[in-house]
Amino acid sequence: MGSGSGSVRARYLVYFQYLGTDFNGVAAVRGAQRAVGVQNYLEEAAERLKSVVPVKVVISSRTDAGVHALSNAAHLDVQRRSGQPPFPPKVLTEALNRHLRHPDIRVLQAFRVPSDFHARYSATSRTYLYRLATGCTRPDQLPVFERNRCWALPADHLEVAAMQEAAQHLLGTHDFSAFQSAGSPSTSPVRTLRRASVSSHPASPFVLPQECRLQFWSLEFESQSFLYRQVRRMTAILVAVGLGALTPTQVKMILESRDPLGRHQTRVAPAHGLFLKSVLYGGLGDFAAESPACAQQESQGPGTRGAPGQPEDFRPEISGPKAGGLE
Questions:
Q1: How distant, in Å, are the alpha carbons of 88, 92, 123, 270, 294 from that of 291?
Q2: Least confident of 40-44, 133-137, 202-206, 249-253
Q3: To 10 degrees, what angle do helices 248-257 and 230-242 make?
Q4: Cβ atoms within 10 A of the Cβ of 132, count?
């Protein structure tokens, strides 16, 4: 409840996506620097909502410069003038999109959430997708529509079976210090990697028939949270396995070394091939994999249908330790 009589402060969970090429990461850049983050544009759009109190956008998962997001998340509080009801989530979504001043950012959907909900700490799962392309002996052989959206490798193929074997060593709860870059704010290097997959990616629609030499691959990683650049460092190691430079057994040894400065683990995959695919919350479906209607239905859950006029409100189940997403 807001400080003014009849003024209600409403908290919203907002899903949004962006192409990260033009941004200095998702986090806002403060001061007079020329660099800008996605958060800067989101907060600028939120200012146009004319909230009684300034709107602060709290990001779920921080991504580096050049990293993209199919679906990131954030929460924000909007307090309208006395006597005005909170914005319906659909109206909030449309208003933010209308006021966004950058074409590479889009708000997907919004939900009303409890005042103690936190977009970063309430997340129960995060999934990252990394895209690779093989068969690019020269940079100009990659279609212009795929540039800055995958890591182009000169090799003709990857030893996928070896990569999959190596990925199995990373699954489970481990000290991932060997895959953490300097500058991480995390107090513990222990993380639980729930899923790590390597697979052939469907042919890109932007590749012409005569360019059949090109093949696309995808790596996916799921955890509640990740260390700084953990996904890009794991990707670089798995690619080294796929190219025959490392063996799956060596990946296990690198993990157990807990040494981030070792000869092999200092490799970091380029930012432009990485996509934050989804952020999950207990009681709410994976927006990236569900239609808005499905996400809305799952957010209400059995026996917890919202009141008329509030179809997109939900109360998430908070589980697990507080964690943040960094990549």
A1: 19, 18, 19, 30, 5
A2: 202-206
A3: 150
A4: 23
- Looking up tokens 């249908």 gives 305
217: tokens are 């691959």
Q: From 41, 51, 42, select the one nearest 74 (Cα to Cα).
A: 42
pTM of the model: 0.86
Phi and psi for 45 in degrees, rounded to 5? -65, -40
> Token match 């529509």: residue?
145
Whether 39 has a pLDDT exceeding 60, the answer reads yes
Q: Which residues contact 208 (CB under 8 A, 6 or more apart)?
A: 143
Q: Give the number of residues written for the chain.
A: 327
Residue 309 near residue 110, CB atoms below 8 Å: no
Question: Residue 94: which H helix or E strand, with range?
Answer: helix 89-99
DSSP string spanning 138-177?
SGGGS-GGGTTSSEEESSS---HHHHHHHHHTT-EEEE-G
Q: Which of 22, 64, 140, 156 is catalytic?
A: 64
Q: How many CB atoms lie within 10 A of CB 50?
A: 11
Q: Known catalytic residue: 175?
A: no
Q: How far does CA 247 lie from the centroid of its chain?
A: 29
Longest dimension (CA), the chain: 68
Reference 175, options 187, 196, 191; nearest CA is: 191
pLDDT digits (tens, 9 = 90+) for 250-278: 999 999 999 988 888 789 999 999 999 99
Q: What is the pLDDT of residue 299?
A: 37
